[in-house]
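PT: before anyone asks, these are the final sequences, not the draft ones from last week. 407 residues across everything. Please model them as a single complex and drop the result in this thread when it's through.
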Amino acid sequence: MTLFDFLQRLLGRQKPSGTMAKERLQLVLAHDRSDLNPELLEQMRREILEVVQRYVEIDIEEGDVSLETEDRVTALVANLPIKRARPLPALVAAAAAVGMAQAPDPEAPQELALPLACEPAEDPSPADPD
Amino acid sequence: MDAVTSAPARIILICSGKGGVGKTTLTANLGIALARLGERTVVLDADFGLRNLDLLLGLENRIVYTAQEVLAETCRLDQALVKHKQEPNLALLPAGNPRMLEWLTPEDMQRIVAMVAERADFVLIDCPAGIEDGFKNAAAAAREAIVITTPEVSAVRDADRVIGLLNTRGVTPVQLVLNRVRPRMMASQEMLGVDDVTDILALPLVGLVVEDEQVIVSTNRGEPLTLNGNGSPAAKAYQNIARRLRGEDIPVEDPSKARKGLRARLMNKIRKTTGLF
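LR: through. Structure below.
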């Protein structure tokens, strides 16, 4: 460790390289073990957000989907803060859209509610934090 | 070696994924150490394309036959086994000739290992680097495995791949040897720590070998450290691995934590009081 490195660490500007090695390894191994590259993970993240948004309003900026590994077990961890639940008609429409149930309420404007419920997901830019 | 066997032989694959992390050095030293403890040991060089185990054991001029001729029945097994002069409990069997690159199959490997296992207590299989055919052949006959790695990101990543493959093959137990440890760098957190590596790979540690220049000297001579380098830290480490494999309870010490030098203590103090690093 050079004096410069030491000062950087003392000032809290730089992590020791061993710690960086561990963090980088944990990330790359989570991907290796699940056979998911970052691109696929990002696609999956967007699709998960899309589905969740049909049911609840979530904070896209705070939403986080990542792979975590402990004891050789890799888990997909999603942390999605909920702002509020969607109104009932939108929920019914969302359920109908995925073929789970037919809308029982004829007053529910299905055609209108579905695009509304899906609106944020159709624009990929807010789902992309970077 | 006589043909009377009591317990079935321990058939251990020594592998790493990445090349150059110390598989062959471990195999040679562990072979000698086990033999010195009275175990009839055969080291099998499964890396027949680029074989080097003969060179590390100083047996490069004594190879006449290989497993290939034994399987083809052009020689007997005891003709192909190269006995070590100073340590007669140890024998080397090269899998094949570097000129013949096509012959070996997983079934060949199982056959030759079964033959060898009849007259040995320990069979150590020195695996080629990589995870392709060479690895698959070498792993075909293994019951248990030792994965060796160094505290570097590339070696640990490759070790992880190999561990995954061993798990799917049902090889068990799989134990870890951490090689080329630099206690000073670990203490200052400029190298992956012992706990970091065992946490990430989730394997029990069967040995820890510190970086030791005597390893290079011993390979130059073709005399493994466990043969007569008793004073060297690496020799001690290899001997301890051999004893742990036989079931002795010897704790693995983390040399980066054992350091009680003034500077290490000062650094720890700074670390604790400031919480900076």
